[in-house]
């Protein structure tokens, strides 16, 4: 079975974890416009103030590898440089 999850925020990652827990064989694709690994939006303030990343990536930088998700696109594992904003283009 192929499963496509739109959004790599906390909800999207939780869906991927749940699917993987019950179905080891499915092909899961997690779509996101973000150029970095899934992060916890509430932890951005702490990241900007202290530079700490331990809480920013609440599931770790390698969450995709742990869930056996294909790695495609722009994401290179860098923390966000600015607050994420929707594209206006």
Write the topology of this structure.
Layout: E1 2-6, H1 10-22, E2 27-31, H2 44-50, H3 63-66
Parallel strand pairs: 1-2
What does this structure look like?
This protein is of the alpha+beta class. It has a single domain, classed as FAD/NAD(P)-binding domain (3-Layer(bba) Sandwich), CATH 3.50.50.60. Helix content is 27%, strand content 11%. It is built from 3 helices and 2 strands, in the order E-H-E-H-H. It has a two-stranded parallel ribbon with strand order 1-2. Strand 1, helix 1 and strand 2 (27-31) form a beta-alpha-beta unit. The longest helix is centred in the N-terminal third of the chain and has 13 residues, at 10-22. The protein is elongated. The N and C termini lie far apart (34 Å).
The number of domains: 1
Overall SS class: alpha+beta
Dominant shape: elongated
Question: Helix fraction?
Answer: 25-40%
Task: Tell me the number of helical segments per DSSP (H or I, 4 or more residues long).
Answer: 3
Strand content: 5-15%
The CATH topology assignment is FAD/NAD(P)-binding domain
Kindly provide the name of the CATH class: Alpha Beta
Largest sheet: 2 strands, parallel
For the largest sheet, list the strands in their spatial order: 1-2
SSE arrangement, N to C: EHEHH
Note the gap between the termini. Answer: 34 Å
Total strand segments? 2
Low-confidence stretches: 75-87
Query: Compute the gyration radius: what is it?
Result: 13 Å
Task: Indicate the CATH architecture.
Answer: 3-Layer(bba) Sandwich
What is the fourth-level CATH superfamily? Answer: FAD/NAD(P)-binding domain
Mean pLDDT: 75
